Amino acid sequence: MPAPSIADRIGDFLPLDAGERSALVDLTERERPLRRGATLVRQNERSTDLFALKSGMMMGYVLLGDGSRQILRFLFPGDLLGTQTFAFGQAQQTFVAIVDSVVAPIERTQLAGAMLRHPRLALALAAMEQAEHVAIADRLAAVAKTSARARVAAVLLDLRERLRRADPAIVDTFAPGLTQEEIGDAVGLTAVHVNRMLRQLEEQRLISRSGGRVTILDDQGLRRAAERAERRTAIDLSWLPVPQRA
User: Fold this and answer.
1) Mean pLDDT in residue range 20-38
2) CATH fold group of domain 6-118
3) Which pTM was predicted?
4) What pLDDT score does 95 carry?
């Protein structure tokens, strides 16, 4: 099954006409492969491109004053990376491939032209970007306000949801594809603390682990443990106008 594209991602919330879908396909024709662990762009580097992730999995992080990193996003096929270049002309995050990945570089001017031709796409992308900002804000608020157990539970639920978009066959068992250090850097915990929380979730029969895979045994119980707001189902793009026919 092919990985979801940016058109698929927007299409989850907004029916696209043929012209809009074709414009998104044209934007992502160029490809750049990245090996696992490769850095796409570093924080504060000059950059006039943004990128669509076509396959694989990546993360975006910022370096803090003490030299540690705060992972802001885990990125999956169909996601846009580096949209901050619209405003700053330089990368505001470092983007690294977690597994072998492929991105499509998109010039700012190229995207601007497509948005002028298809205004609904501009509005949809702006709305989806706001949804990402809300997700980041939720995670950072959780670091300050929720327990370590809740933070780890929330990451597991989010990973399953994102992986399921690429593979609808995923129900309860999935491979997170992340180290415990990476999970910790996303939720403000050490790798040791993440491991402790995973064991606790196992002891409470909310999850099980085997061979690098996680199985959610009690979906509702894990959701209660996560204390997570369900944002995705609340996304509403129904206000966007119907495409004008020629």
Assistant:
1) 94
2) Jelly Rolls (2.60.120)
3) 0.88
4) 95
Given this model, what pLDDT does residue 210 score?
Answer: 94
Q: Which fold has domain 147-226?
A: Arc Repressor Mutant, subunit A (1.10.10)
Give tens-digit pLDDT for 116-127: 999 998 888 888
């992308």: which residue's tokens? 125
What residue ranges do the domains of the chain occupy? 6-118, 147-226
Tell me how far apart the alpha carbons of residues 75 and 50 are, in angstroms, rounded to a whole number: 13
Residues in CB range of 19: below 8 A, 6 or more apart: 117, 118, 243
Task: Tell me the backbone φ, ψ of residue 40, rounded to 5 degrees.
Answer: -80, -50
Cα–Cα dist 240/162, whole Å:
25
Note every long-range contact of 36-40, with CB atoms under 8 Å and residues 24 or more positions apart, other chains counting: 36/97, 36/98, 36/99, 36/100, 36/101, 37/96, 37/97, 38/96, 38/97, 39/94, 39/95, 39/96, 40/81, 40/95, 40/96, 40/97, 40/103
User: 3-class SS at 147?
Assistant: coil
Which tens digits make up the pLDDT trace of 109-163? 898 999 999 999 888 888 888 888 888 888 788 777 899 999 999 999 999 998 9
Residue 168 has pLDDT above 90, yes or no: no
Counting every residue written for the chain, the total comes to 246
